[in-house]
UniProtKB/TrEMBL annotation, chains A, B:
Its main location: cytoplasm. It comes from the Bacteria. The keyword Transcription regulation does not apply. Its EC number is 1.1.1.108. This is L-carnitine dehydrogenase. It comes from Streptomyces cellulosae. Pathway: Amine and polyamine metabolism; carnitine metabolism; Lipid metabolism; butanoate metabolism. Catalyzes the NAD(+)-dependent oxidation of L-carnitine to 3-dehydrocarnitine. Belongs to the 3-hydroxyacyl-CoA dehydrogenase family. L-carnitine dehydrogenase subfamily. Keywords: Cytoplasm, NAD, Oxidoreductase. SUPFAM superfamilies: 6-phosphogluconate dehydrogenase C-terminal domain-like, NAD(P)-binding Rossmann-fold domains.
């Protein structure tokens, strides 16, 4: 543990965030941090980057207002710098959102590490590279973490946080607390898995969708409608595991696995399923019990129903709800 | 085209629906049709079926009230019969929701076909069997269709409608119109694909989730949170295709594919991706243009932002929104 890998600053004293890379994701981070009242410095090598970034922030501002601006939050607190070094020189947290190219990420993180004050955590928005593979060229790899957001970062709460082999575990814990303080919803992973969690799940869905388009089995429009009119309504409320537990009726996940377990052998997707052996069966059932946190199946059904109705109403899909 | 395969009844004259099989899905159908004002006859061979069904309808009723009951809708319009034949004797539409066992479905559909008045469409709630494989033993296979709902059928609008090789196309068209009239959102498929559309998509996600649990890569709780705090919020508003188009920024899906296309080679899920050749690239890009229906990327971003904020507020995930 060196003095460059452990953040010394208290969360409430963090006021200055640097965003490096200001495309869709980096710009979304800029909007998020501005909305939460931070001073943001941003840098992006593209010639039209500043104009694009300011357009993105302007477009996001009505959403940020509805989400609730922090005291003092203002788009005027954004400074676009002409060099990477200027952007991070006084930063207390750095979020890197460069294109997904491993060589580029490696080199950029090494440059950021060299230019950022010691004791400041540097997070990468990478969609899937393990930090272990990206931190190779940095002098202080201990402060480099993955903080993987979802588009748009100012609106979708989730950030997946994970370190690499050479990351200081304290940097991972600090980053998780910082993101929570900055209004994000954090999942901290204890190991590096390509694509993390949510991207693995949506990538499986996306690949199956591409197979269906490639095979002429469904149109893009049908695929989108099949989600927004179907499982997507449930997934805003309750994840896929508890959702499926409710397909088991009063018997919950155990009954669902007894009933639909054989479907894992069906060609319902191009993805081969794992063997549903006793260990996996038990892990899923007890995992659902744990996730239910004492709520009974009837509680969960009532919660889902209230939630889906709220979503249907909020999105104008109930009769007479358009005016609400 | 025989007189037994073409529904003669006008949609507005359909008042009596039979639900055969009254578990989670069949019972959900019962609740849906009751809420929409139909007279429902139900049959299920389980000894405790009636008590379970009435509990399910009672539990669903507050949701049905909020969804908006049709004039005259009442749980009193439910009759549970002691034989299958009584249930369908006067039915104008039949929804079969028996367990997912092919032999059972085949035999049951043949029995239903024999007992149901001619000219009445019989739909199966099967999660994945092609009707071609289920209609083998029926005398009038022309009127047998798949009408695949999502749990719970009284709340999730989607029904996937598709016929088998021996189904009269007119029965498919009539069923699609009937379901729409009964308040469902219909996708009609022109071919049989195992698992239809939405189940293929959620099955890919589910299998990947099982792999992650089996490998100890993520807990059930993390998997669920990664969806409800992440992509699930978007999917209630906009399907996976248009959602990903917005990851391409002002360049839309074409830019997204240019940027993230290489990720299809990454081990981000256990599902192998199709080759992103020019034909697939073009099909996805033009499919998204088509699905956007003239909305620009900026329009879609604004729509998504409004929708996600509405969902966050409706589900109590915005500060101060709990009381709303």
């Amino acid at each position: 543990m060196t003095d460059t890998s452990v953040p010394a600053t208290a969360l409430e004293d963090i006021r200055r965030v640097a965003c490096v890379g200001a495309g869709v994701i980096g710009g979304g981070w800029v909007a998020h941090f501005l909305g939460r009242g931070y001073e943001v410095t941003a840098w992006d090598p593209a010639p039209d980057a500043e104009a694009r970034l300011r357009r993105l922030v302007d477009a996001a501002w009505p959403a940020l207002e509805q989400l609730g601006l922090a005291p003092g939050a203002s788009a005027d607190r954004l400074t676009v710098t002409s060099t990477l070094e200027e952007a991070v020189a006084r930063a207390q947290f750095v979020q890197e959102s460069a294109p997904e190219k491993l060589g580029l990420k490696r080199e950029l993180l090494a440059r950021l590490d060299a230019a950022t004050p010691s004791g400041v955590v540097i997070a990468s928005s990478t969609s899937g590279y393990p930090m272990t593979d990206m931190q190779t060229d940095a002098v202080s790899p201990g402060r480099l973490i993955v903080g993987h957001p979802f588009n748009p970062p100012y609106l979708i709460p989730l950030v997946e946080v994970v370190g690499g082999d050479r990351t200081d575990p304290e940097a991972v814990r600090w980053a998780a607390r910082f993101y929570e303080a900055a209004g994000k919803s954090v999942i901290t992973m204890d190991r590096e898995v390509p694509g993390f969690i949510a991207n693995r799940l949506q990538e499986a869905l996306w690949r199956e969708a591409l197979h269906m388009v490639a095979g002429g089995e469904a149109t893009v429009r049908d695929i989108d409608r099949s989600i927004t009119e179907g499982p997507g309504l449930r997934w805003a409320i309750m994840g896929p595991m508890l959702t499926f537990a409710l397909a088991g009726g009063e018997g919950g996940m155990a009954h669902m696995l007894d009933h639909f377990g054989p479907s894992l052998k069906s060609p319902w997707t191009r993805l081969e399923a794992p063997e549903l052996d006793k260990a996996l069966y038990d892990a899923v059932v007890t995992g659902c019990d744990d996730a239910a946190d004492g709520r009974t199946i009837a509680d969960l059904v009532a919660e889902r129903d209230r939630g889906v109705i709220a979503v249907l109403r909020a999105t104008g899909r109930l009769p007479g709800s358009g005016a609400e």
